[in-house]
C-alpha cells in the first residue's frame, strides 16, 4: 500500500482552465525536520498532449 500519491497522474477540471480537463502530476514534499507534515503540489503534466 502507498501512503501518498507522489508522481501520480491525475486528471482534473479546473476553473483556471475554463473547466477543461487537465492532466496534473502530484509532487509530495516533506520537511526534513518533521515526518508529520507533507506539502502536495499539483503540476501540469507537460507530457500529455495539449487540447486544441
Task: Summarize the structure in words.
- The chain is mainly β.
- The chain has one domain (1-52).
- Helix content is 0%, strand content 38%.
- The chain has strands at 9-13, 21-29, 39-44.
- Strands 1-2-3 form a 3-stranded antiparallel β-sheet, with no helix packed on it.
- A hairpin with a 7-residue loop joins strand 1 and strand 2 (21-29).
- The chain is elongated.
Percent helix, as a range, is under 10%
Poorly predicted regions: none
Q: How would a crystallographer describe the biggest sheet? A: 3 strands, antiparallel
Note the gap between the termini: 37 Å
Structural class: mainly beta
Tags for this model:
52 residues, mainly beta, 38% strand
Task: Note the topology.
Blueprint: E1 9-13, E2 21-29, E3 39-44
Antiparallel strand pairs: 1-2, 2-3
Condensed summary:
By secondary structure, the protein is mainly beta.
Amino acid at each position: 500500500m502507498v501512503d501518498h500519491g507522489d508522481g501520480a497522474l491525475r486528471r482534473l477540471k479546473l476553473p483556471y482552465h475554463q473547466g477543461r480537463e487537465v492532466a496534473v502530476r502530484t509532487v509530495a514534499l516533506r520537511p526534513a525536520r518533521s515526518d508529520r507534515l507533507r506539502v502536495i503540489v499539483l503540476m501540469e503534466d507537460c507530457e500529455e498532449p495539449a487540447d486544441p
